[in-house]
Amino acid sequence: MTATVVGEQRETPTARSLRLSATDLRPPLAGQHIDVRLTAEDGYTAQRSYSLSSAAGADPLEVTVERFDDGEVSPYLVDGIEVGDALEVRGPIGGWLVWRPESGDRPVQLIAGGSGVAPLMSMLRTREATRSATPFRLLYGATDPDRVYYRDELARIAADGVQVDLRYSRRVPNGSDLVPGRIGRAELEASTLPPADEPSIFVCGPTGFVEAVSDGLLAIGHAEERIRTERFGPTR
Hints:
single chain, alpha/beta, 2 domains, six-stranded antiparallel beta sheet, five-stranded parallel beta sheet, 11 strands, 2Fe-2S, iron, metal-binding
């Protein structure tokens, strides 16, 4: 189906959020993704999948795209496409990494690595849009402060009562007492809801990140059936 770019926002030097009007798509759930297809003048097509970062049922939709310089799709979406331009989309797709507000009051722990925060942002925005009282907490790992998506919105969400914990693997903010490093068992024990709370846990990020976090969660006592994961490689 055809979608039109109706808005955009730069998130980081290499990432951009696009708001897409695609009224023929069915309303998305929090955590789903869409396929985006581009067609060149010579008929060549390239298709990639992008998680929705907008709230469930939102119109317009939003995707956040990270640019890979050798990619076929991401450089155009981050630096080329303009408001008013059209592209093809399919979806929404996915039923595993999905949070539904009506699923109950069980607390929710979100854990993101890099651009894996996009579908988890959809869940946070859905919680806010539906005025859900479900307790949420986010642990978000980025390489450095310049690579944090949705910085201002996350600060506002934190001020409204959702605990947001940022960690950095390479460089921390100036003046911070944080130590750069990957999220491991110690960080999971200190910065996530405890197993006794029986939270629903959603983990999204690169394959190595998701595997390490999942192993750490199991090691500190979380039940495997409460952990839902989505992993990805570079989307070019």
